[in-house]
Structures are given as C-alpha cells and as structure tokens.
Write a structure and sequence with these properties.
Elements (H helix, E strand, L loop, with lengths): L1 H8 E7 L2 H5 L8 E6 L3 H9 L16 H21 L18 H27 L3 H24 L1 E3 L1 H4 L2 H12 L3 E6 L4 E3 H22 L3 H6 L6 E10 L2 E8 L6 H10 L5 H4 L4 H6 L22 H10 L3 E7 L3 E9 L7 E6 L2 E6 L12 E7 L4 E7 L2
Parallel strand pairs: 4-6
Antiparallel strand pairs: 1-2, 3-5, 6-7, 7-9, 8-9, 10-11, 12-13
Helix pairs in contact: 5-6, 8-9, 9-14
C-alpha cells in the first residue's frame, strides 16, 4: 500500500531494503525510500500516514551534484566498454526485450472514460438499426459491438491488480498483534492471485485491516481459554479471495468464540438501535449485522487494537460505496466469518434496459435475480361502488 502511494505521486529510485525484501517481510520496523516527486511533502506525508501500519514518516530532501553524477556515469560507462573489449565473445546473444511497461493509473482512467463515451454512442447506433432498414449498416454495427466488447475486456484486464498487494502486509501484522496480545494465531491465506480493479484494491486495504484486527482482538480467545474449551492453543485465521461470476469474494474467518447474539441484542436495545419488540422478529443474520451500527460495541474494555482507525460501520460504508456488500455468519464458540462481495470493476456496469411508457430505465444486472416472460393477457377491473366494468389489455 505504501508503494502504491509512491507510484501515484512520482518515481521510486531505490529502497532499503529492496522491494522484494519488503514484500517478503525481511525487514525490521523501518525502511528507507529514495523518491522523486513534485508533490508537496506535507501532502505526501499525509497520504503515507493514512496507511494503517505506518506510524511515523520522516522526509528529507536530497540534492544531487550534476557534475559529480556525470563523472561517475562516464567512469561506469568507460569501465563497461573496457570489460567488453577484454572479454572473449564466442556467441551473439539476442537482446532482451521487456514484455511489460508501467502506465500511470490516470492514463488508464482517461482511456476508460473515452471508451465509456464510445459505448454510449454504440448504444445509440444499435437503436438506429431498428429504424433504418439497411443491411450493411446493421452488419457494421454488429462488428463494432463485437470489437468494442473485446476492447472492453482488454482495458479492464489492464486495470486488474492481484489482491496479493493487500494480502502481503497481513502475515507480519498478525504475528505482531498476536505477540502483543499474548495469543497464538496462525494465518492461512488462499487466493492471493485473485485480481481486482486497481480502484477497488486501493480502497479495500483499510477495511480488511480493521476486520483482521477485530478477529484477532475479539474473535480468537487466549490460549488457556481455548484449552479449557477443548480447542488447540493456536487459533486459526483464514483469509480467502476468489472469483464468482462478475464479483470477487473476500472472506475473513476465525475459529474463535463467535458472536453472542443475546449480548448483541441487549446492547442494541440499550443503545436504542432497535426496540425490544423488534428484537424478537430478527433473524440471526440481521442480529449479526447490528454490530456494524454506528458506535456499536460489545467489548467490556476499550482496545486500541481493533478500535484503531475505522469502525465496523465505516467498514460497511466503504464496502457499499464500492458497490459491494458484507455479510456476517457466526456460531458461538466456533468462530465468525465476514464475507465481502465486491464488483470486478467500477468503470463499466452491465445493465438491462427497460422501457416504461416514454421513459427508459437501466437496471444493473448484479441487482437482477431473475427475468421472466409474461404473455399479453386480458384483465377486468370491477368497481363495486360505481358498478363500472373496465376491460382492456395488460402489456408487461
């Protein structure tokens, strides 16, 4: 997440330890980055501190001596040339060409905006084919539709980033928090290669951090308490991501104490979130959702572990702002699962067009559970008071 901030604001020249070592968590508590940017240092510092695991940022300006840099460069080039002359070259090697390039996310956004305009014009042309009886025109529009659909897939894939960029920060965080709380927790990650739109990746990090902190702090019990319940001393925390249709699912599951429904209901009534009468009508899933109400907490003691940063209500709002949903399933003494459903991309949404009178409405396909064809039928409306019978046809 830190390097995402760097990439969005300039160019990284060097990091100590290296990027690979940072990703593999082969470093202590600090690291240094040599970075070129035009961004104001206060703004850059603010963006970096928004990353949950960053506690302190120190920015120092580095001045380069152009003449010294040039002399060093010339010396390096001269040495390289001499080495080549002395070498015994026995074969000609093919030049190595790069198969990938780095593109600024703003350029991809601009490309997507232009493509969205083209999609609107394509829809207009498709409507014109119904009123213009010209075979060549219809075939041209059909080819344009196929080509634009393929182009859409290519652009969307260009924006896709593996969710591992978010997941790779969690093993170290889990080990650190487990040690701090005196708990034994083992993290198991699956589906880290699952791809999501870059915009979604940038926004989903902090909500996942809070959910994992919440599971470690309130979910998994202390070792002695687990042993008393007949569980292993080491608790399990599962982080899973996978594709399903046009969505990506991210699940955070623990084998801890679960959610006490009675305690949640009592707290909800006490905070006037619901009334005692309404509490008897709620299903289990609705009771679990109460913990995502604003300011809601069942903790006996306030903790700076899961209580730091965003709350569960902000987690829910953030996920819903991305077009996603969050569901909670729990079983007392056996664990809790948070399931997050996210769209693959926020750029283009496939919709079903519905015409009602003179108005045309677009309904996202993700919101449609079923479609059915209803044939024309006759209907009779009887108005008893006026003894009036109306007869007509119903068109659906």
């Amino acid at each position: 997440m830190v390097f995402n901030v760097f990439e969005n604001n300039g160019s990284v020249i060097k990091s100590t330890p290296t990027v690979e070592e940072l990703e593999n968590e082969e470093f202590e508590q600090t690291f240094n980055v040599l970075f070129i940017t035009d961004t104001d240092h206060d703004e850059l510092k603010k963006q970096l501190l928004n990353v949950s695991e960053i506690k302190e940022v120190t920015i120092e300006y580095v001045a380069f001596n152009d003449s010294t840099h040039q002399e060093e460069t010339e010396q390096e080039v001269s040495t390289t040339v001499e080495d080549v002359k002395e070498a015994d070259i026995t074969e000609t090697k093919k030049p190595v060409t790069s198969k990938s390039i780095r593109v600024n996310i703003e350029r991809l956004d601009a490309l997507m905006n232009l493509f969205e305009e083209m999609i609107i014009d394509r829809g207009h042309l498709e409507q014109l084919t119904h009123s213009i009886d010209h075979q060549d025109f219809k075939e041209t529009v059909e080819r344009m539709t196929r080509t634009s659909s393929e182009l859409q897939n290519v652009i969307l894939k260009m924006r896709m980033v593996a969710i591992d960029q978010v997941f790779n920060r969690f093993p170290r965080m889990v080990r650190s928090l487990s040690k701090e709380l005196g708990k034994k927790i083992e993290l198991e990650v699956t589906g880290a290669d699952t791809e999501l739109d870059r915009t979604v990746i940038d926004e989903i990090g902090d909500p996942l951090v809070h959910l994992i902190r919440n599971a470690i702090d309130h979910g998994v019990e202390m070792p002695e308490e687990r042993v008393a319940k007949g569980k292993p001393e080491t608790g399990k925390l599962f982080l899973k991501a996978y594709h399903s249709g046009n969505h990506v699912f991210v699940e955070i599951q623990d084998d801890g104490g679960g959610i006490n429904k009675e305690k949640v209901l009592q707290k909800a009534i006490q905070n006037q979130v619901i009334t005692a009468e309404d509490s008897n009508k709620l299903a289990d899933s609705q009771i679990y959702e109460l913990i995502m109400s604003s300011g809601f907490s069942t903790a006996d003691q306030i903790s700076d572990i899961s209580g730091r940063g965003v709350g569960l209500d902000v987690v829910k709002n953030t996920i819903e702002s991305l077009g996603g949903t969050i569901e909670i399933d729990s079983e007392l003494n056996y664990g809790t699962t948070f399931s997050i459903k996210l769209p693959l991309t926020l750029s283009i949404i496939t919709a079903l067009l519905v015409k009602l009178d003179d108005e045309i409405f677009a309904i996202p396909l993700s919101s449609i559970m079923e479609t059915a064809v209803i044939h024309k039928m006759k209907f009779i409306v009887r108005m008893a008071k006026k003894s009036l019978i109306l007869e007509g046809k119903l068109f659906l």
